[in-house]
Amino acid sequence: GVFLYNHLQQKVRNAEALAQKYKQQQEALSAQLQVVYEHRSRLERSLQKERGEHKKTKEDFLVYKLEAQEALNKEKQDSMNRYGALSSQHKILKNQHDDVKKQLLDLQLQHNSLKLEHRKTLESHSQKYAQLQQEKDSEVTNLQDTVFKLREESKLLRKAHQEVHSQLLSAQAQMEEFRQLKEALQKMPGFR
């Protein structure tokens, strides 16, 4: 009986030691699981923040693009109006030139003075035409610079979008690893 009692006491002590060991393992696993949950929560908050920033960046880019398009259309319309005004002025000058030619034919006595006036009119017209051509070239250069800047900004936005997408894929992969770890922990008898 004493031997049986001692044997049972030893088994009880072994069972208690084993239970204590399982309890410690469970506490360690619980702590690890808590760390995993906290890390996942931080990742989810970071992902939400990145999504918000990406959405704001995209909206800002669309607003900027719309404003740039409106400015470009306005510049184009102004250029067309100026061209129309210059065309009308050119026709008027041409008509004046024809009138001067008729006057030259009719009035031989005033030939020299009218010839000088005609030369001055042509020089003025040439200066105006050269000035307008220079302004047109300058406007075309400015429009090309604007298009180049918009393309560069588009490239930067695409790059930023790809980086955010890569971070999102990485976060999803980590969440999948955490999910698998959680399932593995739940399958362990000690965890239950």
From TrEMBL:
GO terms for cellular component: Golgi membrane. InterPro entries: GOLIM4 (IPR042336). The keyword Coiled coil applies. The keyword Ribosomal protein does not apply. Residues 5-60, 90-142 form a coiled coil. Keywords: Coiled coil. This is GOLI4 protein. It comes from Cephalopterus ornatus. The gene is Golim4_0.
